[in-house]
């Protein structure tokens, strides 16, 4: 903490050059650090080492503009503390204090003290200035990330929908070709699986019908062939369903074979120069 003492050395009222008055530099504040928008108290102190009582005002200034004038009265040999309240503003401020309207007079060149202070914003009130705070609005996203996403780093709810930006934004990562193929494969597997499940249920119903009626009529009556040697409609349907279930279970192999056939036809079609003209 910096200490400001406006020190008045013993002086004679008969001549100003014999007042022997001077300033020991120092200004301090009611709290530090403080941030823009907060009201802080600026302090200084006047030490009267003369044989006379001194009274007057202390003018507090920011960047040369008056903030407040505070009256004081310092008895001989006494020390008085003087202050002014200031609503801090963002940026660099040169805070100064000087004695004015003093009786007896105090030379201006020796009755002034100053202090330069930088005041930062603290958007999320976490007692950490924005320049040091990696997440100014405390929404769970760093300021750097919000600049990339296009959200406001000083507003925890950019779109004002009542949900913090970190919970509101779904970050979509680019899908690699490998991931894309895997997704297609998984979706196809799920689709084929649902078809196979339906076919198994149909096959089960057919087998139940067959079991309930062992003497089913044959699909065709062929001369010279016993009827029990000709499969019934349900038997053929059961065989067809079993074949479909088996084939669908190997859909990847079938797909590869079909792709190979298509590529083979394309390759030889190009190699032979397309269809021959008559």
UniProtKB/TrEMBL annotation:
It comes from the Bacteria. One of its GO terms (molecular function) is calcium ion binding. It is found in: Secreted. Keywords: Calcium, Membrane, Secreted, Signal, Transmembrane, Transmembrane helix. The chain crosses the membrane at residues 253-273. Residues 1-15 form the signal peptide. The keyword Cell wall biogenesis/degradation does not apply. This is CARDB domain-containing protein.
């Amino acid at each position: 903490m910096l200490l400001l003492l406006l020190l008045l050395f013993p002086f004679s009222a008969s001549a100003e050059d014999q007042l022997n008055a001077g300033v020991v530099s120092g200004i301090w504040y009611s709290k530090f650090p403080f941030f823009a928008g907060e009201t802080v108290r600026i302090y200084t102190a006047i030490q009267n080492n003369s044989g006379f009582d001194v009274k007057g005002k202390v003018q507090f200034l920011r960047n040369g503009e008056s903030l407040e004038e505070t009256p004081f009265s310092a008895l001989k040999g006494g020390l008085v503390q003087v202050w002014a309240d200031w609503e801090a503003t963002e940026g660099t401020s040169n805070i100064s204090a000087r004695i004015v309207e003093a009786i007896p007079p105090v030379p201006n060149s020796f009755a002034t003290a100053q202090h330069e202070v930088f005041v930062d914003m603290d958007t999320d009130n976490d007692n950490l200035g924005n320049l040091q705070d990696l997440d100014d609005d405390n929404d769970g996203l760093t300021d750097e990330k919000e600049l990339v996403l296009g959200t406001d780093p000083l507003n925890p709810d950019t779109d004002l929908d009542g949900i913090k930006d970190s919970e509101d934004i779904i970050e979509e990562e680019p899908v690699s070709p490998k991931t894309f193929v895997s997704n297609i494969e998984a979706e196809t597997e799920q689709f084929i699986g649902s078809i196979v499940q339906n076919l198994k249920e149909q096959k089960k119903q057919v087998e139940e019908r067959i079991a309930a009626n062992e003497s089913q009529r044959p699909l065709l009556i062929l001369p010279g062939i016993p009827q029990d040697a000709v499969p019934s409609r349900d038997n053929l349907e059961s065989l067809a369903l079993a074949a479909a279930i088996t084939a669908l279970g190997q859909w990847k192999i079938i797909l590869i074979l079909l792709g190979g056939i298509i590529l083979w036809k394309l390759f030889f079609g190009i190699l032979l120069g397309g269809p021959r003209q008559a």
